[in-house]
Amino acid sequence: xxxxxxxxxxxxxxxxxxxxxxxxxxxxxxxxxxxxxxxxxxxxxxxxxxxxxxxxxxxxxxxxxxxxxxxxxxxxxxxxxxxxxxxxxxxxxxxxxxxxxxxxxxxxxxxxxxxxxxxxxxxxxxxxxxxxxxxxxxxxxxxxxxxxxxxxxxxxxxxxxxxxxxxxxxxxxxxxxxxxxxxxxxxxxxxxxxxxxxxxxxxxxxxxxxxxxxxxxxxxxxxxxxxxxxxxxxxxxxxxxxxxxxxxxxxxxxxxxxxxxxxxxxxxxxxxxxxxxxxxxxxxxxxxxxxxxxxxxxxxxxxxxxxxxxxxxxxxxxxxxxxxxxxxxxxxxxxxxxxxxxxxxxxxxxxxxxxxxxxxxxxxxxxxxxxxxxxxxxxxxxxxxxxxxxxxxxxxxxxxxxxxxxxxxxxxxxxxxxxxxxxxxxxxxxxxxxxxxxxxxxxxxxxxx
Length: 449
Fold this sequence. Notes:
Blueprint: H1 3-17, E1 29-35, E2 41-47, H2 54-57, E3 59-61, E4 85-97, E5 106-115, H3 125-138, E6 143-154, H4 167-172, H5 176-186, E7 191-196, E8 202-207, E9 210-211, H6 213-232, E10 237-238, E11 252-259, H7 278-298, H8 304-307, E12 317-318, E13 320-322, E14 329-331, H9 342-345, E15 348-350, H10 359-375, E16 391-392, H11 397-405, H12 408-414, H13 416-433, H14 438-446
Parallel strand pairs: 1-5, 13-14
Antiparallel strand pairs: 1-2, 3-4, 4-5, 6-8, 6-9, 6-10, 6-11, 7-8, 11-15, 12-16, 14-15
Helix pairs in contact: 3-10, 5-6, 7-10, 7-11, 11-13, 12-13
């Protein structure tokens, strides 16, 4: 890190450190956490010196904690006050970031939730994704490469309209972007783009995709490091689905492609419709078929459905489109160039998603739907039929939950316990905000994401 960037961070952190007494003895803490049903990271801090022992004994957790909704409320719970589970840290999903500003180390380790005997807990979000990936692996040794393209609003710039993708909007975020990208790099991620987006004070970040479970882990690190970096500057990075009912929303676009056991791409076939291989077409068709119900998991807040309305470049129907940024499933382009490999570039973009979702549940549900498509040899409609045959996406979270509950296959994806818990959890969230105006709902969610 350059001296100029160090000075910028130290200056920005001054307000945060002003009340700290200098020279106090300190011991580094690590946060062992899980990204729960509402996409928020919860857990416990432990002395960093004890981390090596924690994979053997974990940290205690309570089953009903999974029922804490976005607003910190436990509604109806199937677990009551009974039971004990433990969070077991996975050191392959660990980041330790020193911002070199005199503040505490940002040390986060993501965890699996397990029963007391060490077996997976039925409501562990990471296990939900792991089971979906195992199902995909059984279908001819297929593996998933995925990346999460995420949008957020950074409060450290003045709210100016009309500066879409403008260099001035890029410039006005100051050193935040540099510090953020440096933190991502220190975390072992590969930052690809950081840009001023279409909305007021809105930015977007992408990193190189990852295989399987690591893709969802990375999605969490990308979010939490944006928040951590903004905090160092005395500001916030909010990933809330939409901040103003009349404004532009923050989406999460999930890019997926298939690999074989040797890591070779198997999604691309330039001779077939949509340039999708036979197995990729089936996988995509399964996602398309189940998309209205998937929205309950991938767009799981009441304000998600304010964002997903016409004329926002947000999806409103379950359709597939080639290079169409209004489509729910976008067939992404490939670009020619020296040494370029279209098969490795080629991917499918799932668009009706946002950061109110747990990346594990969102990606796991998409994979499960894709597996249904492979197992049942589903086909996509022809490009000419795609718009005519498209089903509407739900217009509210409650409607999406009803569709998920009515989907027979969903019980197999989630298991009865997790599906019941998920539906209760999300309905308790609806109850908190159902009497609020759209603007009031946006304000409540903006405080949390």
